[in-house]
Design a protein that fits this description.
homodimer, 266 residues, alpha/beta, Rossmann fold, 2 domains, 6-stranded mixed beta sheet, 6-stranded parallel beta sheet, 12 strands
Chain lengths: 266, 266
């Protein structure tokens, strides 16, 4: 990494908790590789403080943008001055750019990143019956992306049923006639099972879904990167499923994020 | 520099303009040398936005503290939750630490740094007639430090005379009986001449004082670090004066700042 000076551009990742984030390593490597005088640092901010923090980003002139992750993806959307059509449809952002006039622009690459990560691993969701747990920012993004990637059916499960129903409504509005239903904690009968909740980050977390529903022919995909093997993935491997870790979802969108954040080769 | 991760501590320097600051290089070198997982980055914030920015620092839990420099040193003091007795007396802070509960604590090391820098260059202000231009944050700190270092007399000059008079009043209150007067832009008759204004940072700036008053027996000291040779120092050298650059004032307080900011060896 090059030395930081008074003209170094500031980038960040906002999250809570923060210790597990992997984007600093990934994006600082891209900054290095592209020869850009910038640095990406961790911003640890609680949900209740997000609006206060966003107000400061508008006036922080050396700040160029940041990644937004758990639990802020949905709450960050209305704090932006403008968002992409994709982010508006999903109802969440995972990246925010600061324009020279202080305006904050949001976009959402989680869905594209998840699908690209699956495909790079040789897994194509097209025609599959998919089960998704979690209807937060990442869950919404992955749901829209799965539908756009051509899954035959999508089941959405969420602790708060209202949010799953709201996601179902918006999916049907954008894609009339698709097969989408609300599910239980049991993923039985689905070839692709995806966790987009944060359950599994902490050792004390309950499982995000019922492992009893897993069978050896299923693919179980995670969006959590740290720990690399969550309790869900360990249980899925024990059940003979094919496991797909969380890292590819981020890795596949790092270049999209870098480009959106203005990290163009100099 | 070590790789930045989710647990890297965030430090900053807040200034406007920002391009000329040298603290990132100095303090990141100390972080490296002490083996601390932290990084210091530039925060470019305008004077009008400082309070908005401070509100966010309280809620930014990965933030551990920052250097405060031109033009924010005086304005930052009332934005802190508590300040040192020294900072309160001077009426300015140049370093702010964030406590784990979000409280922001201020201190001021410019005076100590300036005197230490002079002494390391073999120059002792004790017994000298000193002329100081500028009654901002750095000016106040250097004025108190010169008096405490035992100058025989201090003349204070400032574009806004009120601020010089206010500094004079506070100096006399803290140190009754000292010789301190308000001066003009002409430093004649003083063995030590010190610029603490920001005039000289930009090429288009007017001179901070009247070069016609300089004579070869004088020492002319700068607090501006970039450019290394300001128009004042160039004029002083041409007049045969001994010149003392701005860098030692910061260099001599970097360790004090690092210790205050909690950058203890791990």
């Amino acid at each position: 990494m090059r030395a930081i000076t008074g003209v170094t551009r500031l980038y960040g990742i906002v999250a809570d908790p923060i210790h597990q984030v992997k984007a600093p390593q990934g994006l600082n490597a891209i900054l290095d590789e592209r020869g850009i005088d910038g640095v990406l640092v961790p911003f640890h901010v609680s949900a209740a403080d997000l609006a206060t923090f966003f107000a400061a980003l508008r006036v922080l002139r050396s700040f160029h943008g940041m990644i937004v992750t758990v639990p802020h993806k949905t709450a960050a959307l209305p704090l932006c001055d403008a968002v992409s059509e994709r982010a508006a449809q999903i109802g969440a952002v995972n990246v925010v750019r600061r324009e020279p006039d202080g305006q904050l622009l949001g976009d959402m690459f989680d869905g594209l990143g998840f699908i690209a990560g699956l495909r790079e691993a040789g897994l194509d969701p097209k025609g599959m019956r998919a089960y998704l747990v979690g209807a937060g920012g990442a869950g919404n993004a992955v749901a829209f992306a799965l539908v756009e990637a051509g899954v035959a059916h999508l089941t959405v499960a969420n602790r708060t049923r209202d949010r799953a129903e709201d996601l179902q409504r918006r999916l049907l509005k954008a894609h009339p006639g698709i097969s989408v239903e609300i599910g239980s904690a049991n993923p039985r009968g689905h070839g692709l099972v995806v966790n987009t909740t944060s359950l599994g980050m902490r050792e004390t977390d309950p499982l995000p879904l019922d492992l009893g529903g897993l069978e050896p022919w299923m693919i179980v995909a995670e969006s959590i990167m740290q720990p690399e093997t969550t309790a869900l993935l360990a249980g899925a491997a024990a059940a003979g499923c094919h496991v797909h870790r969380g890292w590819p979802m981020l890795a596949s969108q790092l270049v999209l994020m870098a480009d959106f954040l203005g990290m163009q080769r100099e």
